[in-house]
């Protein structure tokens, strides 16, 4: 029951981060970001993972490949296999190019894995804080892990597919 409390607390913090976001401008859904992670070992106070991400823009329909790194600071215990993270991407305008998602995103996260696992991440950032990765992402992995804390995602462009 305790892991669920941590996950619920992290979710509440994440919602507060989104609600109190300084960017009040209307946002447009511009696509989906799908990231593939390497196996991870939680180091009690944090972890780091390399990512390969594909952003699929809605209009015009294009794909852009990014390389990234996700770092978590907070409680992170256990081991997980390679996994996937998926976000809907929102922006202040609908113009998207090959480096639009480049930048650093910060927010709250939490995940629980006992065999199959799920997680939630709330991240805001990018170029001049104009991009928001949907309020709650879906993270899938397999392992034995409990994580909750602050997350930083850094994306760098790698080209067009």
What does this entry look like structurally?
With 161 residues, this protein is mainly beta. It has one domain. The protein is 11% helix and 65% strand. The protein is built from one helix and seven strands. Strands 1, 2, 3, 4, 5, 6 and 7 form a seven-stranded antiparallel β-sheet that branches. The model is unreliable at 4-25 (pLDDT under 50).
Keywords:
161 residues, 11% helix, single chain, elongated, mainly beta, 7-stranded antiparallel beta sheet
Secondary structure: elements and pairs:
Layout: H1 2-19, E1 28-37, E2 40-57, E3 62-80, E4 84-91, E5 103-125, E6 131-133, E7 138-160
Antiparallel strand pairs: 1-2, 1-4, 2-3, 3-7, 4-6, 4-7, 5-6, 5-7
Number of strands: 7
| Poorly predicted sequence stretches spanning 5 or more consecutive residues | 4-25
Morphology call: elongated
The number of distinct structural domains comes to 1
- Strand % is over 45%
Total helices: the number is 1
Radius of gyration: 15 Å
Structural class: mainly beta
Distance between the termini: 44 Å
Major pleated sheet: 7 strands, antiparallel
Tell me the series of helices and strands, N- to C-terminal.
HEEEEEEE
Averaged pLDDT, please?
76
Portion in helices: 10-25%
Multimeric status of the protein: single chain
């Amino acid at each position: 029951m305790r892991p669920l409390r941590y996950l619920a607390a992290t979710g509440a913090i994440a919602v507060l981060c989104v609600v109190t976001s300084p960017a009040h401008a209307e946002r447009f859904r511009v696509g989906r970001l799908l990231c593939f992670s390497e196996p991870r070992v939680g180091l009690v106070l944090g972890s780091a993972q390399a990512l390969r991400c594909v952003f699929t823009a809605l209009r015009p329909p294009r794909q852009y490949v990014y390389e990234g790194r996700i770092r978590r600071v907070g409680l992170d215990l256990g081991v997980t296999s390679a996994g996937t993270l998926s976000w809907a991407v929102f922006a202040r305008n609908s113009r998207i190019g090959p480096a639009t998602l480049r930048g650093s995103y910060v927010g709250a996260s939490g995940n629980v894995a006992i065999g199959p696992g799920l997680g939630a991440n709330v991240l805001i950032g990018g170029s001049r804080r104009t991009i928001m990765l949907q309020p709650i992402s879906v993270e899938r992995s397999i392992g034995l892990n409990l994580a909750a804390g602050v997350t930083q995602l850094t994306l760098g462009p790698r080209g067009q597919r």
